[in-house]
Write a structure and sequence with these properties.
mainly alpha; 7 helices; 0% strand; TSUP; transmembrane; cell membrane; transmembrane helix; transport
Length: 204
Amino acid sequence: MPSIFGTTAAARNYFKNIKPDIPLTLTMMFPAFIGSMAGAALAASVPVGFFRPFIVLLLILVATYTWRKPDLGMDENLKFTHKKRLIIVALIGFSIGFYDGIFGPGTGTFLVFFLVSVIGYAFLKASGTAKLVNIATNAGAILSFQLTGHIWWQLGLLLAFANVTGAIIGSRMAIRGGSVLVRKVFLVVTFLLITRVAWDTFIS
């Protein structure tokens, strides 16, 4: 739950500065919301541990691909027609939303990577758009978990304060540093995420 507060704070900063493609973003947000609700509803009955090794592999592939292409996401280079982009982001929005509802970690990483590598966004715009879509996935999961009584609101609101503070600072740094900084942070965060998920999967 705390992540939606931080994500919203960061998204507000990005929205004011990067001028996102509103039709594309909304087309991605609604399926992401539905997918996240569906994923959260199934979370308790899906053997999440079984999928962790595959998530580690996917994250390694994302990090390797990005690392080996230093020009990736430095400038915007849109692919496909606008209509095709809308169809693609709707499908991916639902898929990543479903993943977020069931599993969670790495959602932002996959969103940014998809927008950069498939759609052709620069890293800064991809990061801002991903934050907006992440609001939808967080909201869908929260609604689903609330309906089943699985949210501890007191603790969640306490953690939200720290999340918002970090998100505001981080988004301001990203806007100032541009796609070059966002790419570096993206790689660092992805490597840390690989370490965390791999530890949870193979060691703990």
